[in-house]
Design goal:
The complex is a heterodimer of chains A (259) and B (386). Chain A contains eleven helices and ten strands. Chain A has helices spanning 4-9, 59-66, 84-87, 108-113, 117-120, 128-140, 156-168, 186-201, 216-219, 236-239, 242-249; strands spanning 21-30, 33-43, 48-52, 74-79, 82-83, 91-94, 174-178, 205-209, 222-227, 229-235. In chain A, the strands form two sheets. In chain A, strands 6-7-8-3-9-10 form a six-stranded mixed beta sheet, with helices on both faces. In chain A, strands 2-1-4-5 form a four-stranded antiparallel beta sheet. Chain A starts with a helix and ends in a 10-residue tail after the last helix. With 386 residues, chain B is mainly alpha-helical. Chain B is built from 16 helices and four strands. Chain B has a two-stranded antiparallel ribbon with strand order 1-2. In chain B, strands 3-4 form a two-stranded antiparallel ribbon. Classes of the chains: A alpha/beta (259), B mainly alpha (386). The A-B interface holds A 31, 64, 67-69, 85, 88, 91, 93, 95, 99-101, 104-107, 111, 114, 117-118, 120-123, 125-126, 145, 150, 152-153, 155, 158, 166, 185, 187 and B 28, 30, 83, 161-165, 167-168, 170-175, 177-181, 222, 225-228, 230-231, 369-372, 386.
């Protein structure tokens, strides 16, 4: 790993328990209508976590508030013990695929290069080093042959892989992904989850807004149930049960979990 | 060509470049209408500035007008944020209100000065060379040339410095914010540049042409390229071409320069809209027709592949059974034959080896939807592209 400088930013985990992400009393409202209500959440380092909950539960809002894209009306968020503004370079974000205009005149490689802009800062332009890192990220997601393709000429699954490559190039410690499996084919879904598992093996923390409850036990080792309030959070094997599903999704929610 | 004519063309070209740059980003951000709003709403700013300075080219006036432009954007966003009306409605509410305040101010106070509604709407490009800038008694050129030139210089400098930030925030606001670039700062920066450019171009070409120069070249360029830098260069080229060509049209017809330039901009867009190689209407129609034929071809080939019986493969049966009109059936037969995919033996059609392989490959692709398998066929068949 070439991110030695980043190791300095992380406080030692030996003396006291420092969470990768810690959310305290977070309340977010749109026009004074709370969408997230008093959320306390501690995400340990090195987990692959799903955030699940019904539509309108505030899953995307939670991620956006952690990343400072939305301003909460109360509460605080820390990344490895410090405010997000100081830890930006430890964090990568994959927004929902539908949040951007794919007709934008640019190529796959160029979109991946955008991931390097954060470490460059204002004004400075990406050079050979950034290009090389971006090509490597494209290779990792199997999209190198498409590097010069205009982004509207890519399939939904390929677009999602480009977004993933853009996050990989940020070489972060914590990855936030907003529904990365939405509208992708089965092959891409497997390719993405394998990369996420690889990230976890490398000690990274991965947080995913997820819709498909069936695949939670197979893909993730940590889960947070959310419906405006936090229902439960913890290891999948301990808390992914009908009780929490019912509390989150309403009365008598049934899900058949294949072992 | 005398020096006044040359000066007019230079001013018009500089205005075109200065407009095309922010215009490209406005088009990509789907904010074309905001340039219309700004161009009208800056009128009260211009009028107040004119009362203070008595000079249409004063920097104070430009700053005041640009400020009104920003106020317009803020007001539109504020009204929109209440959720009571949509953005286009908010724009439609704000700019006529501000514009009409300007109109009343002109009518009440400025009847006797060189500022009337006609000039505001259409500009006075023809008179631009007469208003000279004198430095220490020396004539250094038309004032508006200096004004527009300075604005262009600032715009280009900002574009070069912040190209990366403009690009990423136009494409993906969420990512931009998470990377630590404030999308709001970039947004208002772009709005400020748009306002200042509008004001600077206003005197030369008027409120209507400013909008045309911002939007039309960028919209034309958008249809021709998939690269942001090329889009900027194309937009600038279209703007400059229309400015110069429009000037000469006006010269020959003895018509309004602003009107002629705007007309040329419209014609350029129309031509691009019709003839753009991949996004133009004609290309799209051709592609659709080609796709229809290719779907028919594949249907036909698949039928042949699925049926070994001679009677199922007889030409007459094909006409009746597949239920195509003779013309269509014939064109499909011809296409298949031309590509050596079938051979005919006594009115009985059968697949060649090539045709058989093609059919299996195509069907396999349609079922699995895996791009890698189809790459080599894409060049020959529209069916498998996008």
């Amino acid at each position: 790993m070439r991110n030695e400088s980043k190791e300095d930013i992380k406080p030692s985990t030996a003396s006291e328990r420092v969470f990768a992400v810690k959310v305290d009393d977070l309340t977010v409202a749109y026009n004074y209508k709370p969408v997230l209500w008093d959320i306390d959440l501690e995400i340990p380092e090195g987990v692959l976590m799903a955030i699940v909950g019904p539509n309108g539960a505030g899953k995307s809002t939670l991620i956006k508030s952690i990343l400072g894209i939305l301003k909460p009306i109360a509460g605080s968020v820390t990344i490895y013990g410090k405010p997000y503004e100081k830890q930006r370079r430890l964090v990568a974000y994959v927004p929902q695929k539908g949040s951007v205009d794919w007709d934008f005149p640019t190529t796959a490689l160029d979109v991946v290069m955008m991931g390097t802009y954060g470490s460059l800062g204002w004004i400075k332009r990406p050079g050979q080093k950034e290009k090389k890192a971006s090509l490597e990220a494209l290779e990792k997601v199997g999209m190198l042959p498409f590097k010069n393709r205009q982004i509207s000429q890519l399939s939904g699954g390929q677009q999602q892989r480009i977004f993933l490559a853009r996050a990989l190039v940020q070489n972060a410690s914590i990855y936030f992904m907003d529904e990365p499996f939405q509208g992708v084919d089965a092959t891409t879904e497997i390719a993405i989850i394998n990369i996420l598992k690889e990230l976890r093996r490398a000690g990274k923390t991965v947080i995913v807004v997820h819709h498909d409850l069936q695949t939670v036990p197979e893909y993730f080792d940590w889960v947070t149930f959310l419906n405006v309030k936090k229902i439960a959070t913890g290891p999948v094997k301990d808390i992914f049960n009908d009780d929490n599903l019912t509390k989150t999704y309403g009365i008598n929610y049934q899900v058949s979990i294949q072992e | 060509m005398n020096s006044a004519q040359l000066e007019i063309q230079i001013i018009a070209s500089l205005v075109a470049i200065a407009c095309a740059i922010p215009g490209t980003f406005l088009v990509l951000r789907k904010m074309a209408m905001i340039s219309d709003a700004i161009s009208h709403a800056i009128l009260p700013g211009i009028v107040i500035g004119f009362f203070i300075t008595q000079d249409l080219n004063s920097p104070v006036l430009i700053l005041l007008a640009a400020l009104t432009g920003i106020i317009t954007v803020v007001l539109v966003e504020y009204i929109q944020k209440t959720g009571l009306v949509k953005e286009d409605t908010a724009i439609g509410l704000v700019f006529p209100a501000l514009f009409s305040i300007g109109v009343i101010m002109i009518a009440k106070n400025a009847n006797d000065v060189h500022l009337d509604v006609d000039a505001v709407l259409l500009g006075e490009l023809a008179f631009a060379p007469f208003d000279r800038l004198l430095i220490g008694g020396t004539d250094v050129g038309p004032k508006s040339l200096w004004v527009v030139g300075s604005i262009l210089l600032i715009t280009i400098t900002l574009l070069i410095l912040f190209f990366k930030e403009l690009k990423v925030s136009t494409f993906d606001k969420g990512l931009t914010a998470s990377l630590g670039f404030s999308p709001a700062v970039i947004h208002y920066g772009l709005m400020s540049v748009s306002s200042v450019t509008t004001v600077g171009a206003f005197d030369a070409v008027g409120a209507i042409l400013v909008v045309a120069l911002m939007i039309a070249p960028a919209a034309s360029a958008y249809l021709l390229t998939t690269d942001l830098k090329k889009m900027l260069i194309l937009a600038i080229s279209f703007g400059v071409f229309s400015a110069i060509f429009g000037y000469w049209v006006a010269h020959c017809l003895d018509a309004s320069i602003a009107g002629s330039i705007t007309t040329i901009l419209g014609v350029v867009f129309l031509l691009v809209y019709l003839f753009a190689p991949s996004k133009g209407i004609i290309a799209v129609m051709y592609r659709e027709k080609q796709q229809r034929t290719e779907v028919s071809l594949l249907t036909f080939l698949l039928h042949l592949k699925n049926h070994d019986e001679v009677e199922e493969r007889h030409v007459n049966h094909l006409y009746e059974h597949i239920n195509w009109q003779k013309v269509r059936a014939k064109s499909v037969l011809d296409l298949a034959q031309k590509n050596n995919m079938i051979h005919m033996d006594n009115q009985v059609v059968s697949l060649t080896k090539k045709g058989d392989e093609f059919t299996s490959k195509a069907i396999n692709y349609i079922i699995t939807n895996e791009d890698a398998q189809i790459e080599d066929m894409k060049d020959d068949f529209f069916l498998f592209r996008g």
